Write the structure tokens for this entry.
Amino acid sequence: MIKNYFKIAWRNLWKNKISSVINMVGLAVGMAACIVILLFVSYEKSFDSFHGTDIVRLNEVQKFPGMAASQKVALSMYPMAPALKAEFPEVKDYTRVKWDKKYQLTYNEKRVFVPQVFAVDSSFLSIFNFAVIKGNALEAIKKPNSIAITQETAEKLFGKEDPIGKIINHYGGDTLKFTVTAVMANAPKNSQLQFDALYSLPGIHQKWMDNWGGNWLNTYLKVAPGTNLKAFEKKMPAFLKKHMNGEGWKFYELFYLPLKEVHAGSTEIGLDYLNFQKFDQKSTNLFAIIAIIVLVIACVNFMNLSTARSADRAKEVGIRKSIGANRPQLALQFLGETILLSLLALVLAIGLVEIALPYVNNLSLRDISLPVLSKPLFLPLILLGTIVVGILSGAYPALFLSSFQPVKVLKGSVETGKNKGTLRNILVVGQFTSAVFLMIATVFVVKQLKFMQEKDPGFTRDQIVTIPLDRISGQKYQLFKQQLLGNTLVAGVTASQDQLGSHLDQSGVDFKYNDSPVRNMAATQLIVDDDYLKVYDIKIAQGKNFSSEKSANGREYIINEAMANELLKDHPKATMASLIGQRFGYDSLGVITGISKNFNFNSLHYKVENLYIVNQDEWGFRTVSVKIKPGSAKAAVGFIKDTWKKVNPDHPFEYEFLDDHFAEVYRADNQVSKIVGILAGLAILISCLGLFGLASFSAEKRIKEIGVRKVLGASVQNIVLLLSGHFIKLVLVSNLIAWPLAWYAMNLWLKDFAYHISISWGTFVFVAVLSVLIALLTVSFQSVKAAIANPVKSLKSE
């Protein structure tokens, strides 16, 4: 019997080819969108899933005097971890991580620069489940100056030689010798911790052991099973008060984040340097919701077209019931047709997913694939989901079709369109409301992203090439600068400890206004050389730029307007100009020589913070900024590279345009805008497929009416308006419903940005016009086709 049902189902699908294709394509697109987003969500959820569930990361809330707001940071103090383990039974073990980028390692005459090396406690490999290929994981980094390297690093340094026991050197600020004690598998791509080697931390950084107050590493704790982290956090103020000198403990709070939540749940946490491919959980959830909406729209299409064609199946139902078929049997038959269509759609969907995944991986920088073989449950779950989709799509049409009374149907008196037409209208409105909502959201997201990329940040970032420095290359900065400035391709050279667009460090400073008491506070710091403001074209509002010669009053400081306003809070009658020459700074106080205009040194997600700039070149720099002449990028980069090789022959040349760095700052926002835009486009496509099917059905059912109207003198334009007008009204109603929903959602979303666009009603009108035009184009083909048909043929068919 079931075999017979599927035969009948196949015949009906083949008979109604247009309707079947529309339904299948709509369902396939909806399924494909859901599968891709499901794979993305699954990949995000998989981050650090191979570690234990009892690992947490220690984080700080810093709330220093003078800061506009408190900030959460992923960094912590060196002595915290051993003190926590000694004093609290909740802490079973700990490991700390200090990272070094572009780390140089040498074996014999072979020198390589690996992207990132961690200095860690010996417990690192017992807390985290990173695979060790050679050597003992528990003993690998217990001894000072021992190092465990990844398989990729081993191949770079040793080729096919066995690395265990070999001595490798690091030439940095100090010359260090390491003994290779283990070879590890490369860190999985779904690990927030990405490294090329691990070396023992205490032996290298012992001098920092007692430094409470310095935040320069990450701390991970292994806690006792069942530990209540909120209750544990309540013990931290007393812990800080016990160990920190004076009143300093009041400026900190400690909180813990389970390792499995760090990757996607630490958007508000700054200085989060070791969170590979960090992505906001809210965006992931948004993608999932939109994908479900797209699939629901596809299901609604099926319901609409099935109920619309109910009259075509009425006599079939009447005959089957008259010869003994009961309602459950008929409902099962119609559900079988839906499930068959869904399974066919699944095949098409899998093909679409395979086509889409390379683009998705390129956009998201992930390595997502269809886990057909790697995850045995994947196919059964997808098949089960497809059957569920088929049942949900076909349940109502099956119940509706199987409810026809055979007597009425065979007499031709059954009514299949009145109430069902109202339901179809509601479903169409629901479809287009969702689609219009997504269109509006996409426009605002794109506009906000464009606004962030094009807004004047208050400094020049065009034609700026940045080059990273380490301790060795940093010592030759002045020579590098002099040689670069000797070429006309270079318009300016400067250096700094941090790069604009990155999260800058905070530091404590003192301020003394005339005879007033010294005020202790904290602010963001930027350590630069004398030419920094000139190269970046940062405007001076009061005072002057750094002097070429050192001031007799000590270090020179330039503060931004936000900082100036903070300093003036205790002196309401003073002016910004009066701050020039006042004592300011750390160590022995220097002087304020200038006040710069505010500039957005960070992402536009954040307001301009209090900032001071100091020309502290004796502390060294980590980034060189080279301003090149416009239109000469290729030649200028070539010259910079050649100069670098002359000055630093043993160091690889790396560079990045500052514009590209800021594009990376907004990478996650760009990903969100593109993915939301794609899903919005799919929603519109599926809605239009449904509209096309309904327009086709409507034109087919009214063919005789159209023939009569044409005989009586109706023009093609009249007929097109007659057939299209109803659908255009539905789309307009959809817009009226979608507008307030989109306005509320966009207001909520834009609050995440300190600087954002305003919500203009012009966007809503634009989307309304666009949606009407799309709907009109969708239904016009069938409308025009019906309008130009020969009325004689349609009337003869009676």
In short: DSSP finds 26 helices and 24 strands in the chain. The two ends are 37 Å apart (CA to CA). The mean pLDDT is 86.
